[in-house]
């Protein structure tokens, strides 16, 4: 399960998506996420799925690698579908005592599931095709206007980059601790919910200690190297828009216009 988490990982490649400016990919991901809330019809979800499939194909990242990250949200996805099935009013299809499944609930559950899956995969495309350093530079450059409002843009981007870098490290650390505890006789699978929660204590305590130790080491290393924030810092590789980035913006605009039209033509 831990190895199935793809958030924060980078998949090396030489595709057009990999070469795009990180600002372009950030805007594209945000545009795609917003577009998922502009329609409530099968035609809209089909158009969004086709667009996402084309982007995945261009990126060169194996589809199985992206879908692997969905395993970590199956519980959230299941809970969302159950709530929509039983709590959406409408025409009853199946009745269980005081609970009922409606036709509108089935449609709502299916649409919410598709929306959540495409949202996760769309965000995964960005992280898999962008290195943490480029992602940090893109966020800092894109949020630069907020500096006039005294927003610490550089620090926010740095924190996001460090968080993304720590995700795979903590997952690997968790896997090592779990294997060590299982070798000592720990059982993380059997028993009820309460027993499983109690069995996680020997796992969480050393994990938190390791995380705080790594954070302290990182802070000391940054301080020893004279890190003083973003003021006056220069970039070894400054971000410059290329022709492919402008073409990508035109493609995103065309997609957004298409989605808005679909939402108006087939609102249900």
What does this protein structure show overall?
- This protein is mainly alpha-helical.
- The protein has one domain.
- The protein is 66% helix and 3% strand.
- It contains 11 helices and 2 strands, in the order αααααββαααααα.
- The chain has a two-stranded antiparallel sheet with strand order 1-2.
- A hairpin with a 2-residue loop joins β1 (92-96) and β2 (99-102).
- α2 runs parallel beside α11 (243-265) and α8 packs across α10.
- The longest helix is centred in the middle third of the chain and has 31 residues, at 153-183.
- It is flat and about 65 Å long.
Features:
268 residues, 11 helices, two-stranded antiparallel ribbon, mainly alpha
Strand content: under 5%
What share of residues is helical? Answer: 55-70%
The overall number of domains is 1
User: What is the rounded distance between the termini?
Assistant: 37 Å
Q: Please list the strands of the largest sheet in the order they lie side by side.
A: 1-2
Helix count equals 11
> Which stretches are low in confidence, meaning pLDDT under 50 for 5 or more residues running?
none
């Amino acid at each position: 399960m831990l190895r199935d988490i793809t958030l924060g990982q980078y998949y090396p490649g030489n595709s057009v998506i990999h070469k795009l400016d990180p600002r372009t990919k950030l805007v594209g991901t945000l545009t795609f996420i917003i577009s998922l809330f502009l329609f409530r019809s099968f035609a809209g979800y089909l158009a969004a799925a086709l667009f996402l499939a084309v982007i995945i194909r261009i990126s060169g990242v194996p589809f199985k690698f992206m879908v692997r990250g969905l395993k970590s949200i199956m519980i959230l996805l299941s809970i969302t579908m159950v709530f929509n099935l039983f709590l959406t009013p409408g025409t009853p299809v199946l009745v269980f005592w005081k609970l009922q499944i409606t036709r509108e609930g089935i449609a709502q559950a299916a649409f919410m599931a598709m929306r959540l899956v495409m949202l996760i995969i769309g965000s995964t495309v960005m992280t898999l095709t962008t290195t943490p350093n480029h992602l940090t530079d893109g966020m800092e450059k894109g949020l630069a206007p907020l500096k006039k409002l005294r927003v610490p843009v550089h620090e926010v981007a740095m924190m996001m980059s460090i968080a993304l870098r720590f995700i795979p490290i903590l997952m690997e650390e968790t896997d090592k601790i779990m294997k060590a505890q299982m070798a000592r006789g720990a059982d993380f699978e059997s028993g009820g919910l309460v027993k499983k929660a109690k069995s996680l204590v020997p796992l969480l305590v050393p994990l938190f200690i390791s995380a705080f130790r790594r954070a302290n080491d990182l802070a000391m290393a940054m301080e020893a190297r004279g890190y003083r924030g973003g003021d006056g810092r220069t970039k070894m590789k400054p971000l410059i828009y290329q022709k492919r980035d402008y073409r990508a913006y035109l493609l995103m605009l065309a997609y957004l216009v298409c989605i808005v039209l679909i939402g108006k033509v087939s609102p249900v």
